[in-house]
Amino acid sequence: MATRDRNGIPPIDSVSLAIIEQLQEDGRRPYAAIGKAVGLSEAAVRQRVQKLLDQGVMQIVAVTDPLTVGLRRQAMVGINVEGDLDPVADALTSMEEVEYVVMTAGSFDLIVEIVCEDDDHLLETINKRIRTLPGVRTTESFVYLKLRKQTYTWGTR
To answer: How far is Cα 98 from Cα 96, in angstroms, rounded to an integer?
Structure first.
């Protein structure tokens, strides 16, 4: 069995990192073109990509602008929790409106990003679904007025 780091993720070699960088530049780049750039056959690239997907190292997705698909309200919500964070974090991850959940150190225990159809939908999500979760003590909402930058090209460093 391959060794794993402290987060349980198997080590990634430099060739797989190069493949990831190629896909971050263009998620539709053909495997043959990636193979040429990293020195592997198309079949070898296909196999490595599938392994990276299966291990949860990466995802290949279409990223949309929420406004163009009818989601007109985004917000960041800071949440303070009484007791164990895990049950609250698990409940939040199951909500369709929640894009990501982060456990933090600092003013909040959890920070979540929410994408909703409108202000009424946002209010319902925060007031009726998040604030009513067992263990949620307080919330603080930060409504997005304008999104200036959103990228997924931080590379593999």
So the answer is: 6
> How many Cα atoms sit within 13 Å of 74 on the Cβ side?
16
Q: How far apart are CA 148 and CA 157, in angstroms?
A: 24
pLDDT tens by residue, the chain, 157 residues: 455 566 666 678 999 999 999 998 888 999 999 999 999 999 999 999 999 999 988 988 877 777 777 778 999 999 999 999 999 999 999 999 999 999 999 999 999 999 999 999 999 999 999 999 999 999 999 999 888 887 777 666 6
Distance CA 21, CA 97 (A): 29
Backbone angles phi, psi at 136, to 5 degrees: -75, 120
**Rounded-to-integer distance, Cα 34 and Cα 23, Å:** 8
- Give the separation between CA 29 and CA 35, rounded to whole angstroms: 10
What are the structure tokens assigned to 102, written together? 């982060």
How far is the C-alpha of 107 from the C-alpha of 113, rounded, in Å? 16
Distance separating the N- and C-terminal Cα atoms of the chain: 25
